[in-house]
Sequence to fold (282 residues):
Amino acid sequence: MNGAKWAVVTGASSGIGEHLARGLAARGHDLWLVARGTEALERLAKELQERHRVTVRVRTCDLADPAARGALTEELAGEPVSVLCANAGFPTCGPFSTNDPAKETAEVQVNVVALHALTQALLPGMLARGHGRILVTGSTAGCQPVPTAATYAATKAFANSFAESLHVELRGTGVTCTLLAPGPVRTNFYLEGGIQDLQKHAFLAWLTPRRVAEAGLRGMAEGRRVVVPGPVAKAQYLAGRHTPRALLFPVLGAAVLPLFRRARGGTGGTIPNRQSVNSRKV
Ligand SMILES: NC(=O)c1ccc[n+]([C@@H]2O[C@H](COP(=O)([O-])OP(=O)(O)OC[C@H]3O[C@@H](n4cnc5c(N)ncnc54)[C@H](OP(=O)(O)O)[C@@H]3O)[C@@H](O)[C@H]2O)c1
Fold:
């Protein structure tokens, strides 16, 4: 296989990343599959090699671990990778002050630092070859602050902003960067965040990971700036970006956060109103 066909997919062991890997293999790419779940990665690798006759390398890595992440970025920096799907990520939900501090830190490491480090490692080679495609999985959650998912929303604000900035910076280089910003997608994500009951709410217009991944891959191939799959996610994306905060927080407090709270079994997740904050003794 031509070396320029190598694609790296992080978070390839399930959900959107698994379907990014499936879509890339179907398009003839050789793959590096990255995540912690070795068994799931090896199963997928075997299937894709047999079905599409591509070469697949499994690279188990905890992207939250600086040493493991450093070894991975060093290794990949020397490889002729033409596609990077920086997709691995997970949420924490609940009040920041009561969430597990180690998990909060790992979330920043995976959702922000790993995306940044992998892009930093692979971009110089792509620029030197005059060709490359980067797809960053951000989220509609990154379009506004989300109390009770404060760290998650902030990490996705980073991903969204970083991807769009690179898109513009890279014009004319032969390398493109596309932001994939999904709304709700049925994956293990909600189990990871302890809010799996959220998936009972049909009005959130759940998409399948396959549909989201395919939309991302099409947008990436076209060199688009942003891909927001589905009309409901598009509305969330626009509303999150353009609604004044003074309107947004009451709406989140009244409509969205109670859903999160119920999905977490009633724990945490209120926005104190201004009066209750002001009346607190300091
Ligand atoms: N589902 C949604 O509604 C939704 C909406 C918007 C954006 N997103 C974003 O989409 C991306 C993919 O999530 P998903 O919905 O497909 O959920 P998912 O099925 O839980 O997939 C998450 C992937 O990230 C990997 N990952 C998590 N922690 C990791 C770590 N420490 N080191 C290496 N890999 C790690 C997981 O692999 P291992 O557990 O095997 O390590 C898994 O492959 C995430 O960035 C998420 O923020 C999801």
